[in-house]
Amino acid sequence: MTTTTDTELDAYLREMKVDSALAALVERIASSAIIVANHLKDAAFQNHIGSAGTTNVQGEDQKLLDVLADRVFRKTCASATSLAAYVSEEVEDVAWLKAPSAGDLTLYVDPLDGSSNLEVNLSVGSIFAVSKVLADGDRSVLRTGREYLCAGYAIYGPSTLFVITFGVGVVGFTLDPSDGSFKLTDVCMRVPQETNEFAINASRQRFWDEPIRRYVDECLAGSTGPRGRDFNMRWTASMVADVHRILTRGGVFLYPADESNRQSGGKLRLMYEANLMAFLIEAAGGAASTGTEDILAIQPQGHHQRVSVLLGSSIEVERLTEFHQSHHLQEEIAS
Hints:
Strand order of the largest sheet: 4-3-5-6-7-8-9-10
Radius of gyration: 20 Å
Helix content: 25-40%
Structural class: alpha+beta
Low-confidence stretches: 1-5
Strand content: 15-25%
């Protein structure tokens, strides 16, 4: 029975019979998102717009709000007594909050995805996932995406949304500014299978492998090409914004490994971006792949590992996978 003090997120977690320790951490993740949303709203008045003058472990320039968001998530979520490890894109080392015991939780987070959009007032977001410590004293955070307990994101746009899955089904909450709580607004988010949109950074075309070039060329050929219909190309430079569009309108998000970034494995981080969004997209009926393997099945070798990412409508991801398989077969025959 819902009490007058319950939020709709509380009620949902209870309805889903989410373990109390995990539910407590999810509530703190949601609280972190609300705090970050408020900081973003007031950033210009708090002098939080612009570069922090530092770089993260990937060598990328950090924005002031990148650093602030990381502090918010770590401080707020640390109050969850079950949280043993905080693993952030913005910090080189894993932050161990206590000696880990079996059943404790590990939080993976990209505190502010798409922060390059901040200065032009476009949507940004936070991405998160949670896994479980497997044994007393286990300090490994290198879990496959299949081992996640939940994953989701917050998106800070015209409204603040909190989207989450526990592996089956995806739901969305919208922040109600009148009382500062998340209200359930999307009870069954599904990736539409038929689509006429794709998202890719076209400025990298000269680096693409043949399967990606073939897919994009077919889409751009439109109704007179092999796909028999016109496609629109989108690119927001915020994975959260692009994935949210896919959840609502269908499509694919492509950030493949290419000639320029292959040595590092790709562009996006497996444990802060790829796994988290793949887990959520699959729960919504979509698919995710590197082109040659299932993202969620990859055994991480390091917590800042990068991978190729192709995710979205399952029909499109299957087509991209077939293109990669055909290309590799042709290469084998040629050699």
